[in-house]
């Protein structure tokens, strides 16, 4: 091969497996260069991918994919895997409308054995696959690749607790230990891993190959019942830790593992951001880039949109609230940066709890804090709150504990796509007794709603979308909003023959106002999904000919459904149109376009109303 052309010849792992082992180092160099170039053009997850280049090459080199199954935990590190499994050219479409996903998706490729994006599912899924292979008498390997951050979640431990189901089976868990979650790691497991990696003098050179082989055989010599680490206690043959950038060591270890019955646990140590100095130095910033960036310059802070994001508004409010009330504590399940809590963590280190990836624990931990007199604020993305649903009901709501849920990324999120869609929170929160649920229509209202939440003695949720809002300034002064009260922002002027009232929720208030200007409708900012302002609904329903509800959440069971239930209970009958996120998955892409595709922008809302109520264009423009 001539220089710099190996990657071009790899259209599938079968091509990779035809390479001579001596050609692999060049392939990994080209793969890393291609990855960097590609992500710098599209944006997306970077540091984690840079860290698994050698591991990905080694896995596809040693194992017979797609027959052998690889489950990538979270899947944000699966870009090298995508590049090597026939999607090299499509990387330029990554996370864009109609392009390939930033996560493994079964329908995208036969090499994506299992869809991931929410963390810590890989061991369970791969274990299921191993057992399925055995029951179906198929010979194939099942492999979970899980990061040290994802490993700390309850699900990973539930799966390991069940690993006896894979006794003597070709089952392998690879722990990719880069000593980082998105943020620096937290917790006892991390400390345990740090002891493992520092306690053993694992070499950084080719001698590691021998080390890996030796320790594999050693593990087998001991037999499955001899624990040598925490993972050994669970029943794995523990191998490692080995240098995850040493291709020879990786290949030797994997080949050795392949020869022996499982379950195996291979502990590899990698560097997040490997090979790109900006990312190596600042893996937190380079975990993910929202957009394209110059490789020489790196990600610029100036690329942030003008105005405050909702996460910033939340973070500022949290600092102010903590200043005012010493009972306020902030909790994040491993999303401190994304949730806007960096300043709070600096100012109030003893009142800041990054509990690692552990949404269930975060919520019940908050319930405990609230039970004993504190004011816990759980900052959580809508999509990740799904994981703590029972804790929300059983531990918080049933005991009516005043936990505040600051629900970020509610609605369409953009590049992360269907797995991260914050579509369901309104529907799944509004049916829980004792809950108060608000949706912020702009940044200032978000601040005031959070303040309102702090005054409550019941569990209270404030939801807001990813990114910025309307750009309004936040007032320093905080005033509680009357519970369960909406407000009319615009009155129809009477130009239209059909008098329409739009009941708008949260982020849909602004586009609803825009649409109302086109079709001449009344617009109410409902503010509360629960308790709903039924007086306002009654007043509007009895003075208008039709009601339209608009929300950035699933139409089924959401805020609009709550309004329909209220109308029915009030015995008011009139035509109602519900607008919101449809009953199908919303893929990745530009969030503005995705919302427009759902008819949730100004022209879309106006068009849906015109069509439904047969408003002539001439009458309403
Ligand atoms: C249930 C869940 N909570 C939070 C996240 C957000 N998240 C994505 S990657 C990540 C860090 C994962 O760390 P690790 O597994 O060590 O992988 P690394 O990024 O270090 O490669 C987090 C917190 C998620 N995807 N799923
Ligand atoms: C993979 C994952 O879950 C996170 O990295 C997520 O992509 C972050 O999303 P935000 O960019 O919205 O914080
Ligand atoms: Mg990690």
TrEMBL record:
<dbReference type="InterPro" id="IPR049557">
    <property type="entry name" value="Transketolase_CS"/>
</dbReference>
<comment type="similarity">
    <text>Belongs to the transketolase family. DXPS subfamily.</text>
</comment>
<comment type="subunit">
    <text>Homodimer.</text>
</comment>
<feature type="binding site">
    <location>
        <position position="359"/>
    </location>
    <ligand>
        <name>thiamine diphosphate</name>
    </ligand>
</feature>
<comment type="function">
    <text>Catalyzes the acyloin condensation reaction between C atoms 2 and 3 of pyruvate and glyceraldehyde 3-phosphate to yield 1-deoxy-D-xylulose-5-phosphate (DXP).</text>
</comment>
<dbReference type="InterPro" id="IPR009014">
    <property type="entry name" value="Transketo_C/PFOR_II"/>
</dbReference>
<dbReference type="InterPro" id="IPR033248">
    <property type="entry name" value="Transketolase_C"/>
</dbReference>
<feature type="binding site">
    <location>
        <position position="178"/>
    </location>
    <ligand>
        <name>thiamine diphosphate</name>
    </ligand>
</feature>
<dbReference type="InterPro" id="IPR005475">
    <property type="entry name" value="Transketolase-like_Pyr-bd"/>
</dbReference>
<keyword id="KW-0786">Thiamine pyrophosphate</keyword>
<dbReference type="Pfam" id="PF02780">
    <property type="entry name" value="Transketolase_C"/>
</dbReference>
<feature type="binding site">
    <location>
        <position position="76"/>
    </location>
    <ligand>
        <name>thiamine diphosphate</name>
    </ligand>
</feature>
<keyword id="KW-0414">Isoprene biosynthesis</keyword>
<protein>
    <recommendedName>
        <fullName>1-deoxy-D-xylulose-5-phosphate synthase</fullName>
        <ecNumber>2.2.1.7</ecNumber>
    </recommendedName>
</protein>
<feature type="binding site">
    <location>
        <begin position="149"/>
        <end position="150"/>
    </location>
    <ligand>
        <name>thiamine diphosphate</name>
    </ligand>
</feature>
<keyword id="KW-0479">Metal-binding</keyword>
<keyword id="KW-0460">Magnesium</keyword>
<dbReference type="Pfam" id="PF02779">
    <property type="entry name" value="Transket_pyr"/>
</dbReference>
<dbReference type="Pfam" id="PF13292">
    <property type="entry name" value="DXP_synthase_N"/>
</dbReference>
<feature type="binding site">
    <location>
        <position position="148"/>
    </location>
    <ligand>
        <name>Mg(2+)</name>
    </ligand>
</feature>
<dbReference type="InterPro" id="IPR029061">
    <property type="entry name" value="THDP-binding"/>
</dbReference>
<dbReference type="InterPro" id="IPR005477">
    <property type="entry name" value="Dxylulose-5-P_synthase"/>
</dbReference>
<dbReference type="InterPro" id="IPR020826">
    <property type="entry name" value="Transketolase_BS"/>
</dbReference>
<feature type="binding site">
    <location>
        <position position="178"/>
    </location>
    <ligand>
        <name>Mg(2+)</name>
    </ligand>
</feature>
<dbReference type="GO" id="GO:0008661">
    <property type="term" value="F:1-deoxy-D-xylulose-5-phosphate synthase activity"/>
</dbReference>
<keyword id="KW-0784">Thiamine biosynthesis</keyword>
<feature type="binding site">
    <location>
        <begin position="117"/>
        <end position="119"/>
    </location>
    <ligand>
        <name>thiamine diphosphate</name>
    </ligand>
</feature>
<comment type="pathway">
    <text>Metabolic intermediate biosynthesis; 1-deoxy-D-xylulose 5-phosphate biosynthesis; 1-deoxy-D-xylulose 5-phosphate from D-glyceraldehyde 3-phosphate and pyruvate: step 1/1.</text>
</comment>
<keyword id="KW-0808">Transferase</keyword>
<feature type="binding site">
    <location>
        <position position="276"/>
    </location>
    <ligand>
        <name>thiamine diphosphate</name>
    </ligand>
</feature>
<feature type="domain" description="Transketolase-like pyrimidine-binding">
    <location>
        <begin position="308"/>
        <end position="472"/>
    </location>
</feature>
């Amino acid at each position: 091969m001539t220089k710099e052309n190996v990657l071009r010849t790899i259209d599938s792992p079968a091509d990779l497996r035809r390479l001579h082992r001596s050609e692999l180092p060049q392939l990994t160099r080209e793969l890393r260069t291609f990855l960097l170039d590609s992500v710098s053009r599209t944006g997306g997850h970077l540091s984690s991918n840079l860290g698994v280049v050698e591991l990905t090459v080694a896995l596809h080199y040693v194992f017979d994919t797609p027959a052998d199954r690889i489950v990538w935990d979270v899947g944000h590190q699966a870009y090298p895997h995508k590049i090597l499994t026939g999607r090299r050219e499509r990387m330029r479409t990554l996370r864009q409308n109609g392009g390939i996903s930033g996560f493994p998706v079964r329908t995208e490729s036969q090499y994506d054995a299992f869809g991931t994006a929410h963390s810590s599912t890989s061991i369970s899924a791969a274990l299921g696959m191993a057992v399925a292979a055995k029951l179906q008498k198929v010979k194939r390997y099942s492999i979970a690749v899980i990061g040290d951050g994802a490993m700390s979640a309850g699900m990973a431990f539930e799966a390991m607790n069940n690993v006896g189901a894979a006794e003597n089976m070709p089952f392998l868990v690879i722990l990719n230990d880069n000593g980082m979650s998105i943020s620096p790691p937290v917790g006892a497991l991390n400390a345990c891993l740090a002891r493992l990696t520092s306690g053993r003098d694992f070499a950084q050179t080719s001698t590691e190959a021998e080390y890996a082989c030796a320790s594999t055989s050693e593990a087998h010599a001991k037999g499955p019942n001899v624990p040598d680490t925490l993972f050994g206690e669970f029943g794995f043959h523990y191998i490692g830790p080995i240098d995850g950038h040493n291709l020879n060591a990786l290949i030797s270890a994997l080949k050795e593992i392949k020869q022996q019955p499982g379950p195996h646990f291979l502990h590899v140590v990698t560097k997040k951001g490997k090979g790109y100095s900006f990312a190596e130095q600042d893996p937190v910033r380079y975990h993910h880039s929202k957009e394209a960036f110059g490789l020489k310059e790196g990600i610029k802070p100036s690329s942030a949109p003008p105005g405050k994001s909702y996460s910033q508004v939340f973070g500022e409010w949290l600092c102010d609230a903590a200043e005012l009330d010493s009972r306020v504590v902030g909790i994040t399940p491993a999303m401190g940066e994304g949730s806007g809590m960096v300043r709070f963590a600096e100012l109030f280190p003893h009142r800041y709890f990054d509990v690692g990836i552990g949404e269930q624990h975060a919520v019940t931990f908050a319930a405990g804090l609230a039970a004993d007199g504190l004011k816990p604020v759980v900052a959580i993305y809508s999509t990740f709150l799904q994981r703590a649903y029972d804790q929300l009901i059983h531990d918080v709501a049933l005991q009516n504990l005043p936990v505040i849920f600051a629900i970020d990324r509610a609605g369409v999120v953009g590049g992360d796509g269907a797995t991260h869609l914050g579509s369901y929170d309104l529907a799944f929160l509004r049916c829980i007794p004792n809950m108060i649920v608000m949706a912020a229509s702009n940044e200032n209202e978000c601040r005031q709603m959070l303040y309102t939440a702090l005054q409550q003695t019941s569990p209270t949720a404030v939801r807001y979308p990813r990114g910025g809002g309307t750009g309004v300034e936040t007032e320093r002064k905080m005033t509680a909003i009357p519970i369960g009260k909406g407000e009319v922002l615009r009155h129809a002027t009477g130009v239209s023959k059909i008098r329409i009232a739009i009941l708008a929720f949260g982020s849909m208030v602004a586009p609803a106002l825009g649409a109302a200007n086109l079709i001449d409708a009344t617009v109410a900012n409902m503010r509360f999904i629960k308790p709903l302002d039924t007086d306002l609904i009654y007043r509007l329903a009895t003075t208008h000919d039709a009601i339209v509800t608009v929300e950035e959440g699933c139409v089924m069971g959401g805020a609009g459904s709550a309004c329909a239930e209220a109308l029915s209970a009030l015995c008011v009958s009139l035509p109602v149109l519900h607008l919101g996120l449809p009953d199908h998955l919303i893929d990745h892409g530009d969030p503005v376009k995705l919302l427009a595709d759902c008819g949730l922008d100004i022209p879309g809302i106006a068009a849906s109303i015109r069509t439904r109520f047969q408003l002539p264009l001439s009458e309403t423009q």
